[in-house]
Amino acid sequence: MPDSTQRLFFALLPDEDVRAQLRQLQKDLNRADGRPVPEKNLHLTLLFLGNVAAEKINAVCDIAEGIAGNQFDLTLDTFGSFRQNNARVLWLGLSELPSELNALHQSLRQQSKSIGLHAGKGVYRPHVTLIRKADPREKLPGNPEQGIKWTARRCALIASELRSAGSLYKILIEKDLPEKLR
Fold first, then answer.
1. Residue of 43, 88, 105, 153 marked active site
2. What is the pTM of this model?
3. Which has the closest alpha carbon to 45: 105, 4, 95?
4. Tally of structural domains, the chain
5. Checking CA distances to 180, which of 35, 42, 69, 149 falls within 20 to 30 Å?
6. Is the pLDDT of residue 81 over 90?
7. What is the pLDDT of residues 110-135, one digit of tens each?
8. Active-site residue 43, yes or no?
9. How far apart are CA 152 and CA 100, in angstroms?
């Protein structure tokens, strides 16, 4: 594992079909004059850890290797935004939080706290960031009619390097979630 501090987060990774639908939404939203998140960076954050000291990185990797839970379904059906440096970030989130997603988030949060990491604060609001640096005066679109149906099958521990042209993501550990038992 790396010998320096790393900016880390846990995330769900969309499959190709979901990625294509998210990409289409980005094109539809491009009137907001922002910077679309690159397709390869599209994800739903499970838990943002921030800068993790070198001596804790192996423990975080152990948490990622031990992620438990089965595949589950979710629907991305609500647009939202937040301000970031005099611009806006546009995202697509969930109107209903599946119990499996909440359980996965809470498990990662507790395990991260147990190794001494500050593991997020406030209410968990899962979303996929679509556009960064959008015009803050642009009105948000209405919510998508059908939403995007997503079966969460893959999760990952990702390192994020901030750059002027946008974040560079590197998947450190990727894990497939087992299918639900019927």
1. 43
2. 0.90
3. 105
4. 1
5. 42
6. no
7. 999 999 998 767 789 999 999 888 76
8. yes
9. 10
